[in-house]
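User: I'll paste a sequence; please echo it back and then give the predicted structure.

Assistant: Echoing your sequence first, then the prediction.
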Amino acid sequence: MSILGVVQDLGSMLAPFAAEAEEGSSLTINFFWILVAAMNFIVFFYIVYKVVLVPVGGMLEDRREKIEQGLQDADAARRDREAAADQKQAIVAEARRESSDILARGQKTADEAREKAMADTQAEIERLRQRAVSEIDAERLRALADVRGQVAELALQAAGKVVGETLSDEREKRLVDEFLAEVAAEAPSGSDQN
């Protein structure tokens, strides 16, 4: 409150001038009141400055800092969002590439399995065909052996009736073998003509 004390001291020093000014004419300038009004204005301005302007200035500064921080946070959030969008695009592209790779591997595996199955089936068919051919050849040879045996027996019986004697076992075998050799030699040429 030293300012008020200074103002009071100044007022008491200027009081004689105020009294003189009151005694004079009304158009005169009263320096005392001008000085008092100026001092009042300065004191009032100082009080308003300390009570109102300083806190309001502080609040405005705080508000400005908060707004700047908000703008920085918004800019950082925008950059983070853009980075996340880029990362999302990269992840999606990687997932698409991996799915294409998996699909290609699956298709390749399916093709290989199908080709292997076809090769196995062809091998099984060939094996079964070879077995069937072997069985047919064996059956044909057995049938030929049966037919030869029957033909040989009939031929021996017919020869025995024609000759009127019974042939010995050794002689029969030789005659039958010769006969069958002749028939076998003629059979391929006869089948070629048909």
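Residues 1-14+34-51 form one domain. DSSP finds three helices and no strands in the chain.
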